[in-house]
Amino acid sequence: MKPTPLLAALLALLPLGAFAQQAADAPDLPLRAQVEDALRGSPAVRAAGSLIDAEEARSRRLAAGTHEWTVRLTDQQRRVRGTPDARYNEWDVGIDRSLRLPGKGELDRQLGSAGIASARIGRGDALHEASRGLLAGWFEWLREEAGADQWQRQRELLARQAAAVRRRAELGDAPRLERLQADAALAQADAQLAQARGRALVAAEALRRLHPALTLPASVPESAPPAVDGDAAGWIAAILEHNHELGVARAESARARLQASRTDAERRPDPNVGVRMARDRDGEERILGLTLSIPLGGAGRRADADAAVALAEAGAWREAAVLRKVEAEAAALHRRARAAYAGWQSQQAAAEALVKSADLTERAWQLGEGSLSETLAARRLAHEARLAARVAGLEASEARYRLLLDAHKLWPLDMDDDHDDHDHL
To answer: Is 116 among the domain residues?
Structure first.
């Protein structure tokens, strides 16, 4: 079927998916092929695909119209008073249907096309939401993995330190208190490591359950987050261009305007025409005729038209509200990504300084110029700063990827618009 001008306009709202700058093969992201499989298998995405089938069927129904042929058959016996033998078998048969007035059929076809376009944009919105959920779940797992890895490193440092204290205590160079302090710090690190590993396992299990197509790597290399390039205006424009939520609002607003036009056209009732054949008085009278009936429109049809106009106006206001909301979210997302990157830089600088300070403090203790408690405190501060820096780096990466995702520069969010294979993607 050739797309109507309205369908072509609405389909133009569908994002084209700019992949020139995609980062699907980045070391801190799942493989692009696995992401596509995960999105294809998403129940929400497949449900949205089924809604396209429903709208296509509804479009065929609108094109066909609601009027159907009606067959009427009457069989009767006539008895004439005063003449006992005057009994006549009679029958009457007719067929009729209402005829859609010119212009209404075209509006119905446009309504069907608008429904299909809205459902297709809705499928894109489902893909987008599934992608957001996958990205959030992935980075939740990365954060827990980073925490477990950092506690593992801290545990190894404290284990080496406890072993050194143990040797010095055996040689009589360290008091028993230092050995107790070193063992206590190691025990605390063991407990924190066990908890961190537990949280990482929970996050991994949730990610696997929600996205079975993903294969979680044994480890993810630690990498510095890239800076966010471009100005806010460019990112906001890109997000608005490809935003599915705004596309759905625009499609529904256009659909409501069409529905208002169709309801207003219904104020002119459709005539009912038919053919009638009858046989009276055992065939002495034969009747062949045409029937015509026209409903008389009244206040009810005017009220329906007024309600449809009000709904179209409400749709236009909803579209304006979504536009304002998306603009605000895009601006906030860009600002959050820039702030997260700046925060990571500060955390990284603080962590490097505290790590150097901890190394110097430990070196001084080894030379007999400090206490073990000062060394353990310095190590604890360095560990906390290092963990905060790693989490800040992951948050900066996630914010940047979310910006790329909403601008359709990260993963494909408009797979296989061809719907013939019923795979919906």
So the answer is: yes
Q: Which residues share a beta bridge with 289? A: 276
Is residue 6 included in any domain, yes or no?
no
User: The domain that contains 118 carries what CATH number?
Assistant: 1.20.1600.10
How many structural domains is the chain composed of? 1
- Give residue 50's domain range: 16-406
Closest CA relative to residue 386, chosen from 355, 423, 342 = 355
Residue 96 lies in a domain: yes
User: Which two structure tokens, joined as six digits, stand for 390?
Assistant: 């790693």
Q: Give the pLDDT band of residue 413 (cuts 50, 70, 90).
A: low
Cβ–Cβ under 8 Å, residues 93 and 291: no
Q: Is residue 2 domain-resident?
A: no
Sign of torsion, CA 391 393 396 397?
Answer: negative
pLDDT in tens, 362-401: 888 888 787 888 888 999 999 999 999 999 999 999 999 9
> What would the DSSP string read from start to end of 296-343?
---HHHHHHHHHHHHHHHHHHHHHHHHHHHHHHHHHHHHHHHHHHHHH
* pLDDT tens-digit readout, 190-212: 999 999 999 999 999 999 999 99
